[in-house]
Amino acid sequence: MQEHKNQPLNDFIEYPHDEMLKRAEEFLAVSQRRHSIRSFSDRPVPREIIETCIKAAGTAPSGANHQPWHFVAIHSSDVKKQIREAAEKLERSFYEGRAGEEWLDALKPLGTDASKPYLEHAPWLIAVFSQKKGGISADDKNTNYYVHESVGLATGFLIQALHRAGLATLTHTPKPMSFLTEICGRDKDNERPYMLLIAGYPGTDATIPEHALVKKSLDEIATFI
């Protein structure tokens, strides 16, 4: 490696093989209880929980460690209403034909439609933005690298953090998502909406589509060579 400032790795914990397997199996079991739902309770969730989960998302690896992401945590009823109105307007055109028959057929087993009441009902929405330029310091204006991959990793960390904290989530990606830039007051020249996460407790009528419970086997998703 080239010379660079560094420090010893002093917080890595090595576990015996049996404990490693146990921890891996426990994490698998926890992950298997993570479900996307579309009915959320309006029960409040303390801001400090959301803050801690976003901090966890911020530990994700990124290209050149530029951390090209920004999370807008939305609790305001007024802002949530604006987002719902804008999203449902797009979703209506989507379900009325813009998506195409193949896409709509793929969605039928999930039971989705243009109505998105959870965008107002859930206690928190988290808008994830990617950044074209930035760097380690907040005022850096360098080119960011592997932006899509980096923000995808951070979003995955965030979903798992919210799940581990005891909250349910849903990913929402209306197209186009430019309305989020305006509503959240972000820089349209440097940032692009990446995803909208809904977070909170499940509603008493929350369900899981049977279609969503079908997961590919290890042989179908992995090859060992």
From TrEMBL:
Question: Pfam families annotated for this entry?
Answer: Nitroreductase (PF00881)
**Which keywords does this Swiss-Prot/TrEMBL entry list?**
Flavoprotein, FMN, Oxidoreductase
Gene3D superfamilies in alphabetical order: NADH Oxidase (3.40.109.10)
The record's annotation in CDD domains points to: iodotyrosine_dehalogenase
Cite the InterPro entries for this sequence.
Answer: Nitroreductase, Nitroreductase-like, Nitroreductase/BluB
Q: Which part of the chain is the Nitroreductase domain?
A: 33-201
From the Swiss-Prot or TrEMBL record, give the protein name.
Nitroreductase family protein
